[in-house]
Amino acid sequence: MKRFVVILLSVVVGWPVLSAQNYKEVTNETPGQLESLLGSDWKDLDSLVVRGAINAEDILAINEYAENLKWRVIDLWEADIADKTIPQFGLAYNHYIERVILPDDIRKLEMGAFSYTQMMKTVNIPASLEVLSVSAFGSCLGLEGSISIPDGVTEIGDGCFMGCFLVSHYDLPARLECIGENTFRGCFGITGIELPSTLRSIGVSAFEDCYGLVTISIPGGVEYLSDYCFSSCSELKTVSLHPGLKTIGVGAFIRTALETVTLPSTVETIKHDAFKNISQLKSVYSMAVVPPVLEPNPAINHFDNPFGESVSGYTLYVPEGCGNAYRSATGWRDFGNIVETDDFPYSVEDAGGDAVTVAGGVGLISVSGLNACEVTVYTADGRCVATRLVDGAADITVPAGMYAVVAGGRTYKVIVR
Fold first, then answer.
1. What is the rounded CA–CA span in Å between residue 230 and residue 282?
2. Separation between Cα atoms, residue 176 and residue 51, nearest integer Å
3. Half-sphere exposure of residue 157: CA atoms within 13 angstroms, side-chain side
4. Residue among 411, 368, 404 at smallest CA distance from 386
5. 296 DSSP 8-state letter
6. Model pTM?
7. Taking a C-beta distance cutoff of 8 angstroms, is the pair 212, 206 a contact?
8. How many Cβ atoms sit within 10 Å of the Cβ of residue 159?
9. Which phi and psi angles does 12 have, rounded to 5°?
10. pLDDT-derived band at 382, boundaries 50, 70, 90
11. Of the candidates 362, 375, 372, which has an alpha carbon nearest to the alpha carbon of residue 412?
């Protein structure tokens, strides 16, 4: 009867079904003593069901037995696991386990909990989970389908899903703040992934070699786009960079398939190789009134443009009144055609949408319709003369003249009398 209950629960909540017919059931009363119950009578058995209290020592024992006896399924659904934690490398480096069924109260997967268990196809991730540590599922080459990470997780550890190339979709937590280094590196199966607005950090090479990735949108809370974070995503054609982004790291989009790049007005620095080796790229839109600094490669004794060697064939679109600033700026002046425009392809969300208004008056600039948004005012020659956080509406006092006002991800040209 117990067997039937486990199968029913697995089907209802979408967890792996214990399909093996030849299994052994054990109930452990004293943590650390499970090995004494496992015994040696395993003829024609390939799976284990564990009930009762177990600890890290017991889980390591399960893994050793599973490796030696070629177990396929480990069912811990009714086990009471100490500290609600799968320990470091607890079920790792196993060549036979195909499915793991965890209790619904697990809170933490420690470093390498399932890493290199390459035959594992499915594992339920309980809604109670709070900690996904370094390499928890790293190089689980057989893991497949869709993975939903619970909302209690705010940080995904370095290399957590690296090399899980059969997984086709990840649902990220609504409160996620940090994606570690190499977290999704080599996840060939994903074509898109929605990054939550709470995200603040994307680690080095986080999505490198995600060959199937076609589109990505970077939320405005990410100020620094780390080195090589999307490098060698050879099918990546569309990227939306939101206001708030300040620095684009080394090789961030090298060897992608981008056709157009739109840089929000907040970008200040683009490091070497950021957009290099992109044969399809022909147009770059920079919404910044002051040209972002293009950092050269320190290992090369001549200026190496972050956009590659073919920029003489690119068209650069800049805010009206800013053309001369770009034509005199290092790296930007190498673009073959620099066009002033107020018609940018807004692939970013505006802080206030169509409700934002910016107008010049007598001795002041009036802005309204903003939701806790930073407003920056530049003179026609690119000098910053005012910065203000505006929530709702505000008047900014300036002398008479022509100004470029950056607000809500857009640049407005105004005249003050």
1. 19
2. 33
3. 17
4. 404
5. P
6. 0.81
7. no
8. 27
9. -65, -45
10. low
11. 375
